[in-house]
Recover the amino acids of this structure.
């Protein structure tokens, strides 16, 4: 059956403007990066590519990205003051321009945290406020923020993924999609699991307790 476009698909989201791609999409990318990092980062280096870099001042892209990292929504009137709020919280957020091969014109690369806790999250605003996270710490992924998401880190060893899915099955959680990515055989791997419903805290506790899983992060719908 063909999907029928809604009025929101045509005119974009309810938001603080001026641009759904450069403002609303940027906020959503910031929110997703924050969640993947595991909280509000005190330090961020934000690299802008293509039209994100060229029009970032006029379209409020920088403010929107910072607003997302601070946990604001696309309709939050504080977006215009996000850089000031970040400084008031003692955060160090800086921007630079980069050229990323074969990336969408509206692309941002977040470098979040410092020391051993740095996380890299790359994503693009693809139009109408819609977004796609394409890389996490060098792993290729595909995240659009439309379903609750689990980000699991583990060794590329037998049984790690099945242990996590068994916990979900016992809890009655239906898996919508699953992506498994690794850089080298037997080394660190990343598994992304989208679910039809958010996880109960007890389910999250059970996942964290799994010995074969090194870290568990939940990413909400944005």
């Amino acid at each position: 059956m063909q999907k029928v476009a809604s009025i929101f698909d045509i005119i974009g989201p309810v938001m603080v403007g001026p641009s759904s791609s450069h403002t609303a999409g940027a906020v959503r990318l910031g929110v997703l990066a924050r969640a993947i990092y595991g909280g509000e980062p005190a330090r961020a280096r934000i690299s802008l590519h293509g039209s994100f870099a060229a029009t970032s001042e006029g379209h409020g892209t920088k403010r929107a990205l910072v607003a997302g990292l601070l946990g604001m929504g696309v309709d939050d009137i504080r977006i215009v003051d996000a850089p000031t709020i970040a400084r008031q919280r003692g955060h160090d957020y800086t921007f630079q321009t980069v050229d990323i091969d074969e990336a969408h014109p509206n692309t941002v690369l977040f470098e979040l945290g410092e020391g051993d806790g740095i996380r890299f999250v790359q994503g693009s605003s693809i139009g109408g406020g819609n977004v796609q996270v394409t890389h996490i710490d060098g792993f290729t992924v595909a995240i659009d923020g439309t379903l609750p998401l689990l980000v699991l880190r583990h060794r590329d060893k037998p049984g790690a993924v099945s242990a996590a899915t068994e916990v979900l099955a016992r809890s009655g959680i239906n898996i919508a999609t699953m992506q498994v990515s690794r850089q080298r055989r037997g080394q660190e791997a990343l598994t992304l699991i989208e679910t039809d419903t958010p996880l109960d805290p007890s389910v999250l506790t059970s996942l964290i307790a799994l010995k074969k899983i090194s870290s568990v992060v939940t990413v909400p719908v944005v």
